[in-house]
Amino acid sequence: MSSSDIFIGETIGTAILILLGGGVCAAVTLKASKARNAGWLAITFGWGFAVLTAVYTSAPLSGAHLNPAVTLALAIKDGDWSHVPVYWGGQLLGAMIGATLVWVAYYGQFHAHLTDREIVGGPGAQDTKAVEAQEAQAGPVLGVFSTGPEIRNAVLNLATEIIGTIVLVLAVLTQGLNDKGNGLGTLGALITAFVVVGIGLSLGGPTGYAINPARDLGPRIVHALLPLPNKGGSDWGYAWVPVVGPLVGAAIAAGIYNVAFA
Amino acid sequence: MSSSDIFIGETIGTAILILLGGGVCAAVTLKASKARNAGWLAITFGWGFAVLTAVYTSAPLSGAHLNPAVTLALAIKDGDWSHVPVYWGGQLLGAMIGATLVWVAYYGQFHAHLTDREIVGGPGAQDTKAVEAQEAQAGPVLGVFSTGPEIRNAVLNLATEIIGTIVLVLAVLTQGLNDKGNGLGTLGALITAFVVVGIGLSLGGPTGYAINPARDLGPRIVHALLPLPNKGGSDWGYAWVPVVGPLVGAAIAAGIYNVAFA
Amino acid sequence: MSSSDIFIGETIGTAILILLGGGVCAAVTLKASKARNAGWLAITFGWGFAVLTAVYTSAPLSGAHLNPAVTLALAIKDGDWSHVPVYWGGQLLGAMIGATLVWVAYYGQFHAHLTDREIVGGPGAQDTKAVEAQEAQAGPVLGVFSTGPEIRNAVLNLATEIIGTIVLVLAVLTQGLNDKGNGLGTLGALITAFVVVGIGLSLGGPTGYAINPARDLGPRIVHALLPLPNKGGSDWGYAWVPVVGPLVGAAIAAGIYNVAFA
Amino acid sequence: MSSSDIFIGETIGTAILILLGGGVCAAVTLKASKARNAGWLAITFGWGFAVLTAVYTSAPLSGAHLNPAVTLALAIKDGDWSHVPVYWGGQLLGAMIGATLVWVAYYGQFHAHLTDREIVGGPGAQDTKAVEAQEAQAGPVLGVFSTGPEIRNAVLNLATEIIGTIVLVLAVLTQGLNDKGNGLGTLGALITAFVVVGIGLSLGGPTGYAINPARDLGPRIVHALLPLPNKGGSDWGYAWVPVVGPLVGAAIAAGIYNVAFA
Prior knowledge:
The structure is a homotetramer of 262-residue chains.
Chain A: H1 3-29, H2 40-62, H3 68-78, H4 84-105, H5 107-115, H6 128-137, H7 142-145, H8 154-179, H9 185-203, H10 213-225, H11 241-260
Helix pairs in contact in A: 1-2, 1-4, 2-9, 3-4, 3-8, 3-11, 4-10, 8-9, 8-11, 10-11
């Protein structure tokens, strides 16, 4: 694969990943969306099929890493770091493009949500102060772009992201062992998608399962730049956790792989 | 493939697509249905398995485009426009047959729904005027047949349909690259189905993801023709958006494919 | 395949089909079940994975028809009726065994449900008379065993069952065309399973999608025989619809196949 | 396969199985989890994708039994008992590691759940005494670790676990017949995953479908050892049922296989 194919493939693939992944968060969260309140199962399957679509589309060009943590793990496994910058660059650019496309596709919904917010107490009025305090830190639509913790504790949040990424990366690395010689690469895209649904369902509860630095950082930058009214903060104090955690998890998984599977 | 196989395949396939796709909308919407209020996840998976069933059944005859936007993109990619009219004709006819079969399968439910409607206020009484205003424009069961926007704005609605169709068509076009030589055509039907579930979950919120001109126009014509009591309007003012948007999106996707993947 | 392999395979396969299919109805319906009120999506996916498990397990022995309508369609398509009685016998016996195993697995739940029923009005008290009238006709747990219509009208109910079975059988018959020569029989089991989920989501609303005479008749016989307290009637007046409808649908689908695909 | 590969593979695989399987129970149950109250469908799909991820990752090393009942059935089928102790040892150790990782990933959620519990009556106050009585027997978070019955009756609970395990093991044993010679081992992981979702949806209602002695016993030991505040009892009186039931079911399934399929 040429560097330009890698860069284009990762940019297109990660853009699709974030367009669909951020899209399902917008669909379930924002006012005037047919999918509003569709629930956690919709979010996790939406992210899984985002992975499927993105991997399937970009695999012929770049092999579909779409995640700096996956790129890091493969570099450790293969001992080849030459393409890491190209992969990482395409992934971050793609994630920013994808987040911008979510804003375009849900432009009217963002406006309706941010300019017509319920202030007074309704059925959940007793939670208003807690919600307001959280939203002062993380803007009211930041969850469409980036992840955030339910309980803010850097050590615990890092641990959860590390564990989730280990599971993801081990499944990706063993794909080569499972598919060796039988041409089931396409099936691998489907299995990776369901693995991501599983990680979301099982390990997404505490931090929202970034398990991918580009998936979190790229959209957070876009959130900071977009001219959204009343958008609130981008929660930069948390931004390092979903970058460092997945990279550490990927390194651990590559180590496990090299010891146990290679 | 002969022209008659193409026409028959597309007619049967698109009829199955709309029978099952419109069917799940009827199942979730209409009174006296066991699936009433089964939610957005049921609708998106229902449409996805509609795609699976329709593609799987019609692929041996026509290659299973089942969507004028897909036919357009393949014509641009291959530079071969000779079969476009046959595909489009079969697709529109099939969509109309499918919508008619939904009406047959849910005949009793349509009658119960349209002749015994709640007029006075219930838990959602404060929304009655908004609902009535919308239903004067788009009939109370039009959603079983065709799509409609949550926020009516032609530019925004077009943008959402264009973005959704680009994702669909890129996945369809890259199928050839993924499956080359390993005979996984059948697996491609499954992956396309889950891609459509993903587009629905992630990009369906604003407009209901037509992403297929025949899927929207054919059933809308049938809605206008059927002798349904109190059916209300067919919302022809919106009808051009889910036709033009998907065709524009398909052309853009074919362009991206020819530049980046070919 | 020998007649004894066919009979054993169909008996085991249909027993698994009804054990899991009836099981999910019990799980979602009965008191003291962890899955109570899990909803329509749980029921439709439960039946789909029942098909997957049953087809996958019995395919090596009998080819996994598991449905008299499928056996009929294949006999019409191939012009070979010699094995039809063996298939049908195994299917009916298997369905009765499966329904009995549901009763064993949910014995405590059946007892809790039928001996401790809410009589007085709760949130749905205004519906009590309608529910009682329906239960006098169809017993309060008959839905765990057999299907029943939301709107009782033989012509409409037959039409819905015929349409659903046509979709199922066309997908089964075209499997031979899709899989020819590439050994994807196992994938066919998965696709058939999702086709059945799709039929359930899209066409299950009016009658509960029997689309299989053995699936409905076998458990209905078991319901009539089991010593369940307060079980109510077995609704024999409706029993012919889910037998005749699927057989008619299968014959129509075989005709379509022989004209359009063969 | 060497004994060390088997032991490492089963340990890693069963750790992933219980990390994701226990994880989804934590996600849906505990306070301060984004997935709280996501429902039974989330739990069953979460366990299914736990199976997928675990089987896919460990299959190249150990063949991915991940369940003492599966190991027993394969030993009976093949008449080879030499590796049974290595498999069982790896499975139990892996299950304990997995349960410990759930505790790490959800550390903050466990603390929030167990130290800030609602005591006074709310909407479900009439059930408080029943809940307290149950929690005195089985601790308030034991369900994140191990299974428990809705209706406590050893004979009935054993029957349900036996029936569920027969279905699982028959599907696993026939995999060899389905996949013979076409290299679809990877697809087998996906099918087994959906079979487990199906067993959960259909037969999980009465006892929570252990169908795997290591899945229940390993986490129960960890529950007894962990320093969780207010954790309550580990319900050792029930612990033998999800060990004995699955082993009996596996033996019955192996017998059925040897008579009907071999």
